[in-house]
Every structure is written in structure tokens, then in C-alpha cells.
Amino acid sequence: MKSKKRASLVYKFFVYILLIFLAILCIFPFWVMIINGTRSTAEISQSAVALLPSGSLLDNFKVFERYETFAPVRGFFNSMIISVGATICAVYFSTLTAYGVVAYKWKFRNAFFTFILAVMMIPGQVTLIGYTTFVYKIGMQNNFLMLILPAIQAPSMVFFMRQYMIPSLSLEIVESARIDGAKEFYIFNRIALPIMKPAMATQAIFTFVSTWNDLFRPMVLLPDQKKNTLPMMVSLLKGDAYKTEYGTVYLGLTLTVLPLFIVYFLLSKYIIAGVALGSVKG
Amino acid sequence: MKRKKMSYAKYGYFFCIPFAVAFLLFQLYPIVFTLIIGFTDLKTLPTNEWHFLDDIFGNFKKVLGQETFWTAFGNTWLLWITNFIPQIVLALLLAAIFTDNRSKIKGQGFFKVVFYMPNIITAATIAVLFTNFFGYPKGPVNDLFHALGITASDNNIYFFQNKTVARGVVSFIQFWMWYGYSMIVFISGILGISPEIFEAAEVDGASRVQQFFHVTLPNIKTIMLFSLVTSLIGGLQMFDIPHLLVSKNGPSNATLTTSCYIYNKAFDGKHFYGQGAAASMFMFLIIAVLASIMFYVMRDKDEAKLNKLMRQQTREFKKAQKALKGGN
């Protein structure tokens, strides 16, 4: 019995060592990024890693004004408009589509749903040349709508919403609302949507994050520098202008992901539970 | 009453119309258009001047006969495999540790939150961050090498000049960004296994290792296959990190992936849209085959089991939500 207990202690010791090592591995790069954003170029070239912040945050920020290409505030708003717009489109219309499949019996319902399953995995990147040509042909390059509207069709989200809706939405309530004289669209907005709120919230977070992080599509569809999103501006930080401005580069990198850190620290438990919930769909 | 119920069917169509229209416009049309461009000499945007090639498969022949394309294709697989294998091994190990009933690990919530964090941070930012870490002549890794005495203090290494290092860092970043995600997916899969099976194994005297290989693994096969295929589909489109980490796709195209190849062909420099489209369609074909495997696996999945798992996760999820509301 005693040897068993000792074995268990040894096991736990190694497990915690592993977990703490991995935790440091995950936090450390971001820590260095944030701290170095507050240090001067001289400090960083002396020793590139420091654990405590220094006082050069404002000086580093002022460098951005010297070269106007990296404009964190403008980039923030551009990214925000696209991400919020795409999130609203994706979440609302996916729930609407799922409701159409769950709440009504129509002839092609099953065929339509099978179709959604079939197209779920179609990758966005390999169709980008056709899409870009189309967007340029109608002169809509540099228009955020061309990045927002495609979110209306999100097959995997429709699938998720359907799986969530089947056990949660009682068709009897829908039926009784009808008897009370409610219109179908009203029933969806006032009865189905509130029930779907938890599922919509998680899916909203994930759509927001993935749209925010997207690089390929905005890079191709938004050639005008004024329309650049934050991830696009990241590549500017690699440019010659910032070659000797170490602190500013780290500060710029921090600024591009600041909203993500805030979202994550406020909602992390919720996001983790959402990943687990989403994984079930597979 | 029954007759009246029937008349609601049309709303099913109405509610699905926005999806269908958006799909036609933003998904199907671009696919068809990309395919058509693959047969043309389209070179500048916006333009109405393009012609089908005399040799209709000219672009396809050109791309598939090009060494750079196969280098990119090979790199994509190499970069995916070298990040996927360690990622899955570590994720399975962590999932087994976190779901082990015999010795509970404290601080699970904290570790999950930390391990998942890199996954939601912008890949472009992470790529440039690592470019700076491996900076030449000055950078944290060079500093570290000096401090540890690996290199002399006047000897700075230009890490990305080396093919293996450049590839290794891309794989490492991918691994580092995704193992937390895979871990959470596997944990939720293992929690879906009926606890009686584990109890029975324990009563029978199975060791931790035996239990893992004979009970846990066989029971999460489907979820593992799901991870494999989705990761592969994502991996074949790998772009952000190889595009930004090393300038000009690394030494002798060491980190050139197919997505980078398509980008270089179509959107950078010479604008060979036709060839880019041909390469895109080649990738599309491969991914479509993988996706159909996925499709059949999902269709075969036991619906009842899926619903049970879904309910259980929903409960967990609501708990987290409640905790969140309580916290505010």
C-alpha cells in the first residue's frame, strides 16, 4: 500500500513539472512581447529578455506617428467593423437556417441538410482567386462588405446550431405561439433566438476571433492601405522602417492582439467550454 | 389542423433562402470561376480581357510540371506531419492526465486556459513575434545562446539561414498553437465514454497505461479521426506563419507552402491568375477527397450517442456560463 502511495506521489510530481513547464512555454513568449513593448531599443539590444516592464511605452508609441503606415487605431476600427459585421451575419443567419431545418417539415429538408454537411469542409482559400476576380470585376475591392457578407453562409455553424436546437427548442411552444396568432418570423426572433442564446454566444466568440485573425482574404481584397486590418499591419512591422525600433515592434505586435487578450481573460472559462461543446459536433 | 400544419412548410424554404443565396454567390460561384480561370490567361485585375488558352490544360501542365510547386506541396505535408504528430501525442497525454480519476490534478481550469491561449491569438502576430525572437544579429534566442554558453558572445547565429531551423520553427509554432485545442477536444471525447467502462477496467486491475491503450484510445477513435482530417484540411492551407516568419519563403524555399505558392503566383509580382487557379483547383481536389471521408464518418456516427454527448457538454457549458454570470 505504501509503495503504491509513493508511486502516486512520484507520478504527480512529474505531471506537475510537465504542466508547469508547458504553462511557462505558453505564457513566456507573450510576456516577453508585452514587456518589451515598454522597453527602449537600447535596453532591448542589451538584453532581449526582461521580466519587468520599463518606462519607454510612450516613446515607443510615438514612433508609429513618424511612419504612418502602421496605424493601430485605424487598423483596430477596420478589424472591428469586419469582425463584428461578419459575426452578426454568421450567427443570425446560421440560427435562422437551422430553425428552417428544425422547425418546419418541407420536402427537401433532409436533402438540404445533407448538402450542408457535404459542403461543411469546403476550404475558403482555394476559391479565393475566383472570388477576388469577381470582387474586382464589380469594383467592390476595398469594401468591407465583401468580407462580411460571405459569413451569411457558415455551413458548420448551421450544423452546430441544428444539433443544439433539436433538444432545446420545444415545437409545442412554437405551436402555441402560432395559436396566439404570432407570425412565423416573430416566433423565430422572440422565441427561438432567446433559447439559442448560449450557443449563439460561443459561436459568436469563435467567429469574431477567426475573422479578426484572418490574413489571406483581407490582404487580397483590401489593397488600399487605409482599409488595412490589424493582422495585415503586422507585416509592416517587419519592414525596414522599424529595423532599429525594437521596442516599437513589440508594442505594435501587442496592440494587434490586445482585444483578443481582453476577450480571452474575460471569457476564458466560457471559451474552453465552448471548444469542448463545439468538438462534439464532429 | 393537420392541413394547416402542412401550410407552414413554405417558411422552411423562406428561412433557408438567405443561406442558399449567399452560398451560391460567395462559395459556389467562386469555385466555378476559379476553375474557369484555371483554363485562361487572366493576368491583371480588373479586366475583361482574358482568353481561354489554346492548350486548354496549359496552366495545369505548367504548374504540375514545375519543381517549385512540388517543393511547396512537399513542404506543406512535411510541415503538417512534423507538427501534427507531437501535437496529438502531447494532447492525448494531457487529456489522459486530466481525466484520470485515480489521481486528480489540481488547477486543471488554469492549465486548460493557459494551454489553449496561443490558439486564439493572431497567427500573423505570432509569426512576426517569433521572427523577432530568432532575430539576427540581435534577439532573445541569440542572447539565450550566449547566456548558456552555447555560442561565444561575439558569435551571432542567423537562424533562418538554415533550412531545418526555419522549418522547425514553423512546425513548432503550429504545434504550440494547436495542442491545447486538441487536448480540449480529446478531454471532451474521453468524458463522453461511459464511466462504467473505466470502473470495470480498474476492478480488473488494469494499470493506467493499459487503461489508456485498451479503453480510452479505442473509444475516442472517431474523435481522433475527426481531428486528423480537420487538422489536415487546415494544414494543407497553412499560410500566415510560413508567409510571415521567414522572408522570401526561407532558404531555397524551405518554408514555401502551397498556399504561399498560390499567393505568390496570383497576388504577388507577376499576377499569373491562371496558374494560381490551377494550383488552387489541385488543392481543392485533394481537400474535397478528405472532406468526403469526413462526411461519411459523420454520417455513420450514432445519432443517439452524439445527442447524449451534446447534452452532457451543454450542461458543462451552462455551468461555465452561470459561473461567468456569477462572477460579474
Description:
The complex is a heterodimer of chains A (282) and B (328). With 282 residues, chain A is mainly alpha-helical. Helices cover 73% and strands 0% of the residues of chain A. Chain A has helices at residues 2-36, 41-46, 57-66, 72-103, 109-119, 128-137, 145-148, 155-168, 171-179, 184-213, 216-221, 230-234, 246-279. With 328 residues, chain B is mainly alpha-helical. Chain B is built from 15 helices and no strands. The model of chain B is unreliable at 1-6 (pLDDT under 50). At the A-B interface, α1, α4, α5, α6 and α8 of A face α2, α5, α6, α7 and α8 of B.
Q: Helix and strand layout, with pairings?
A:
The complex is a heterodimer of chains A (about 280) and B (about 325).
Chain A lengths: L1 H35 L4 H6 L10 H10 L5 H32 L5 H11 L8 H10 L7 H4 L6 H14 L2 H9 L4 H30 L2 H6 L8 H5 L11 H34 L3
Helix pairs in contact in A: 1-13, 3-13, 4-8, 4-10, 5-8, 8-10, 9-10, 10-13
Chain B lengths: L1 H5 L2 H29 L20 H7 L2 H32 L9 H13 L2 H11 L6 H8 L15 H29 L3 H9 L4 H12 L1 H16 L3 H6 L12 H10 L5 H28 L2 H25 L1
How confident is the prediction overall: mean pLDDT of chain B? 85
**Biggest protein-protein interface?**
A-B, 109 and 124 residues
Helix percent band of chain B: over 70%
- In percent, how much strand structure appears in the residues of chain B? under 5%
Low-confidence stretches of chain B: 1-6
Class derived from helix and strand content of chain A: mainly alpha
Report the β-strand fraction of chain A as a percent range: under 5%
**What is the count of β-strands of chain A?**
0
What's a quick, concise take on this entry?
The complex is a heterodimer of chains A (282) and B (328). Chain A is mainly α and 282 residues long.
